[in-house]
Amino acid sequence: MAAKMIIFAACVATTLAQYAAPAYPAPAYSAPAYSAPKAYAPEPTYAPKPYSFEYSVNDPHTYDVHSQSEYSDGYGNVKGTYSLLEADGSTRVVDYTADSYGFNAEVKKIEGGYKAPYSAPAPYSAPAYKSAPAYKPAYSAPAYSAPAYSAPAYAAPAYPAPAYSAPAYKPAPYKAY
């Protein structure tokens, strides 16, 4: 078997030795055909565009009360404030600035500035019960006498003893393997 492998390896080596890897000439770049990469065009600059906006919502049906106002100088500096009505009736007010130093917010809570026009329901308390009444059925149980059973009127069948003898079984011989 080893001799066959040696012969096979020799045949493969002989076959591969007949073919050489193709040789390609090195690429040649001439000055007119190749030039340095061009730099990207500079990013256009735009004049600063400041903005300002504000809005507010006061919905008496849903008790949605909030507002916001914000303005920017166009150079990335933003100042603003927003407020909203909390569930407990207080108002949260947030004043914020965003500039080259980051985002900075100052949160204030104004207590009790708004009360909803409804009152909260009273807390639930379980009703007070007196002691439970004793159970008394509305009827009396009927009086029944115990049933009287008598012995059956027919005789129990008599079966004869079996006419065959039980087979005698021998245990299977044990073979140790």
Give structural notes:
The protein is mostly beta strands. The protein has a domain of 60 residues. It is 9% helix and 25% strand. The chain has a 5-stranded antiparallel β-sheet with strand order 1-2-3-4-5, with no helix packed on it. Strand 1 and strand 2 form a beta hairpin. The model has no long low-confidence stretch (mean pLDDT 78).
Summarize the structure.
Keywords: Cuticle, Signal. Pfam families: Chitin_bind_4. The protein is mainly beta.
How are the strands of the biggest sheet laid out side by side?
A: 1-2-3-4-5
Distance linking N and C termini? 40 Å
- Approximate strand percentage: 15-25%
Describe the global form. flat
Protein name: Cuticle protein
InterPro entries: CHIT_BIND_RR_consensus (IPR031311), Insect_cuticle (IPR000618), Insect_Cuticle_Struc_Prot (IPR051217)
Keywords: Cuticle, Signal
GO cellular component, one term: extracellular matrix
SSE blueprint and pairings:
Blueprint: H1 2-17, E1 51-59, E2 64-72, E3 78-85, E4 91-99, E5 102-110
Antiparallel strand pairs: 1-2, 2-3, 3-4, 4-5
InterPro entries: CHIT_BIND_RR_consensus, Insect_cuticle, Insect_Cuticle_Struc_Prot
Pfam family, one: Chitin_bind_4
GO molecular function: structural constituent of cuticle
Q: What brief labels describe this structure?
A:
single chain, 177 residues, mainly beta, five-stranded antiparallel β-sheet, 9% helix, flat
